[in-house]
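Morning!

This is the sequence you dropped in the shared folder:
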Amino acid sequence: MLKYILKRIFLMLVSLFIIMTMLFVLVRLLPNPVVAVPGGFDKALSDMREAWGYNKPVMVQYGIFLRNVFTKWDWGFCTSMGTFLQPVTVYLASKLPATIYVNIFSVLFSLPIGITFGIVAAVNKNKWPDHIIQVVIMFFISVPSFIYAFLLQYVVGYKLGWCPLVFKGGSDYFTWAMFHSAILPILSLSFGPIAGDMRLIRAELTEQLTSEYMLLARTKGLTKSQAAVRHALRNSLVPLMPSFL
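The structure's back. Tokens below.
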């Protein structure tokens, strides 16, 4: 088990390094011309790019970046509007609590709904509830979450005015005002996992319901719902728990 865990950690670090390298190279290859600005500000921008090493070859820049990461834990600075020269670690740390907050509630919201409708689809296989759920699954999986976010913002937030359009700032996450402002992002992040959970539960539970031990359970006097909940559902959740977690 220890060997397996270490292997997975090693593969995770390798994947992270490959993705980080690709993103760094692709971002640095984007054109970033210094536009002349009245007052000589373009000269200041040129000097800043030279001081930061942006005029050097891409792989030399990447070497400098890796050296700063491993020796100083310096991941660079944000240069966008409103966060100019703010350390990346500080910027990400300020956004991390809200990210965790929204993702935890999206999991708590999507998991029971996905499991429930997956069970309904499996028990009613090839019937009208199953067909409706299959259409919903295909729709939710096919559409990206940012499309849901835009539609929810426009319809629920702007047209109906039921929820705020902007996530509430601050550090008090256990208030109704904070949760109310997070409803739209929670919903937009939940539709995809709900469809995925429904599909997994339906496929696994359908296989369990057609197994031979289910026939034995029915012959011993259990109803279809009792056998499905006590035996089939419990067994179908075992291979699905890693995907849920």
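Headline: The mean pLDDT is 81.

More detail when I'm at my desk.
O.
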